[in-house]
Amino acid sequence: MPQSQATCGWQGGWFETAARRYTRAVEGNIRPDCHLIMATTKGGAIRHEFRTDSGLRYSGRDRVGTVSFLPAGCERRLSLEHVAWEWGAIAVHPGSVAADIMSIAPFIEPSEPFLYGLIAQMKNLLSVDGALDATYCSVMTIALAEYLLRRSGRPVRAKGIRQLSARQLRMTMERIDHLLPQPVQIADLATPLGISEGHFYRAFRGAAGRTPVQAISERRVERAASLLAQTDCSVNRIALEVGLASPSHLARLFRTILGTTPSEYRREFRAVAVPARNDQDEAIRSG
Fold this sequence. Notes:
The protein is α+β, with helices and mostly antiparallel strands.
């Protein structure tokens, strides 16, 4: 068993990161009920051997950047020698992505920049924030599925509406505002419109000129800014009020969108608001 482990889930799957101190030999079987993408993020193994029930065989070193894919229901029997490593894994529920993913053969690659970069980014966000944003994860699930299909040479079906109508966009923004205090997943926005998550993502971007993640982040920052200005609630409390798991995530969004931190925003707002209020009170008394 790994010596340390962290897991975070969302509607369409889950992410796991774990570490193992030096072990001379490890053996085991994996038969996931989800599509599983794994990457070595630190260390590795002198020898990594495995075979799947679909016929894939591998024998070689395992290094940082090594990525493997195992479709749901496919068994992999593995053995490792002289292993000390950290890894991350994304598991995607089969029902949340195109059925074509089931026909993609398992693989292992010493270098897969997109897949490795995604896992490394998720690992870093989980370490910093203590959780992963559900909107981000659901969007990354869509991107991951499309990447795997293109990688295997299968077409990505882009049928459906090109962009949301003005009414659909207005309804979606109202739904985002309603759901803002909780995790917002793409399915929460796509299902009421009767379209798939992938189609919704593209249609929303076509109508709004930005992605759903950007729109949701902007709404969260707007609401947080209002709370910072109008209340004495702590930044921790405000982060929770706008659907974020940690103040560090809120601070990152503020820096990206407003170029400042929540605390600096509150301080600057009050520095301007107090003199203005005093001037207004003085004018009333003088009148």
